[in-house]
Write a structure and sequence with these properties.
The chain has 17 helices and 16 strands. By secondary structure, the chain is an alpha+beta fold. It has a four-stranded antiparallel beta sheet.
């Protein structure tokens, strides 16, 4: 099945889709989207390229054998050029070793021949590129928050931000369309445009399930026992933790892993490694906890760009959002997000969780942590609630409006709590008239 990619909005999700679609030794070629592709919904963006796999050579409509050969070579070249440019866009310049491996791969591909052609990329190359990009992504995610912030600062162009317009955008994230646009976020750039000089990004606080509280209740244990998603050792460990409550999922998982490791026939879990990259089983357990205990996590400024951020921005670029322009500078949004990310690091340091501190530092913090202290700190996190109340609960619209208000107040030199009217383009932007807590570094 062909896949559409776009240089102006290429994301890790696109690379995941390519990995799932392309594998093995079959050749990969690229072409411009056809009218039929657009009718089928395969591509509706300017700058899109269609990638597809072929095992034969009868995929061209050129009228002569010579034209067929040259047209086919152009498709090989286009596939390589597009993939190299897009994958490199995901790799920070600081990861020189990974970028070098990508360059070396395409040098090898350039020398690879098939039927007189060269530059012949295949599915195995896509798998290798996905591995390299995943290694880079993991390296960034495992960096302390302050280093990730420094990386984010180095990788954006301040001069380009100064001219980007800012919008409060609403869309329908479920149907990926502008129909009933209930989901809100802040975006910079030009709605409906994918041109490079007008491109921007989203600014949003993302929900982090690792910041959810956990209650090992009878209901949670009962539902886990009936599920095939969990190993027997996990179910036994849950029963041992029955009745306990935890301020965050990371506190819970550490106790759970210790209980699993104490079982004689269980596979030993490296706690620090597992926490840095949770397996599907434990992700499913946190999802079950969210459903049972009605806690889907808290907002985190430390997660700078997520899969949902890229999805939202693609919808913004495709013109599938309702938009209301806000008179603030994009650079101010960037500064506010950096401030909130540093505050997030402080809270996580104090809680002994997250990726800002080393495993030994977290163990030292937790050794002196009382249950009351952990609960007090966790209460300073803003919980995700679709229909939220108070400043320590929020939904997407409320967090977006709060971010916009904070940026306006920063530019005007006001306290971050100074009320500001934020206009939205739809009455479905539920929560946008309320405000969540934003840390003010100048407040006493």
């Amino acid at each position: 099945m062909p896949l559409s990619i776009n240089t102006n909005s290429f994301s890790f999700q696109d690379l995941d889709n390519l990995k799932d679609q392309f594998s093995g030794s079959q050749e990969i070629r690229a072409r411009e989207p056809s009218l039929l592709d657009r009718i089928r919904g395969l591509s509706s963006e300017k700058g899109s390229t269609i990638l597809y796999q072929k095992s034969g050579i009868s995929d061209t409509q050129a009228s002569t054998i010579s034209n067929k050969f040259h047209e086919r070579q152009h498709k090989y070249d286009k596939a390589c050029q597009s993939m190299k440019k897009n994958v490199l866009s995901l790799i920070p310049k600081e990861h020189k070793d990974i970028r070098s491996k990508i360059d070396n791969l395409f040098q090898d591909i350039n020398l690879r021949s098939s039927g007189g052609h060269y530059n012949v990329m295949n599915g195995d190359d896509i798998q290798y590129l996905h591995k390299l990009a995943t290694d880079s992504k993991s390296r960034v995610e495992n960096m302390p928050v302050n280093e990730r912030l420094q990386l984010d600062i180095r990788n954006f162009n301040k001069s380009s931000l100064s001219s980007l317009p800012v919008y409060f955008a609403n869309t329908n994230s479920q149907f990926k369309s502008g129909f009933l646009p209930y989901h809100g976020f802040i975006a910079t750039g030009t709605p409906g445009s994918t041109s490079a000089e007008k491109s921007g990004r989203t600014y949003k606080l993302s929900r982090d399930i690792m910041l959810s509280s956990v209650n090992v209740s009878n209901d949670l244990i009962s539902k886990a026992m009936k599920s095939n998603s969990f190993n027997d050792s996990t179910k036994t460990a849950l029963e041992q933790l029955k009745g306990k409550t935890y301020a965050t999922a990371e506190h819970f998982l550490k106790d759970l892993f210790k209980a699993i490791n104490q079982q004689p026939n269980s596979t030993t879990i490296n706690i620090d490694q597992e926490l840095s990259n949770l397996s599907k089983e434990f992700k499913n357990l946190l999802s079950l906890n969210s459903k049972v205990n009605k806690d889907s996590g808290a907002y985190s400024a430390g997660r700078l760009q997520t899969t949902s951020s890229h999805r939202d921005f693609e919808l913004f670029q495709q013109g599938k959002t309702s938009n209301s322009k806000i008179n603030i500078k994009a650079i101010t949004l960037q500064e506010v997000m950096q401030e909130q990310a540093m505050y997030q690091r402080y809270l996580e340091d104090q809680l002994g969780i997250g990726k800002a501190a080393t495993a030994d530092e977290k163990r030292q913090t937790l050794s002196n942590m009382t249950k009351e202290r952990a609960s007090d700190l966790a209460n300073k996190l803003v919980k995700h609630k679709r229909f939220s109340t108070g400043e320590f609960q929020s939904n997407c619209n409320k967090s977006a409006a709060s971010l916009a208000q904070t940026a306006i107040n920063k530019e005007q030199g006001n306290s971050y709590r100074t009320p500001q009217h934020i206009e939205t383009a739809t009455v479905l932007s539920i929560g946008s008239k309320d405000r969540m807590h934003f840390h003010d570094p100048l407040s006493q």
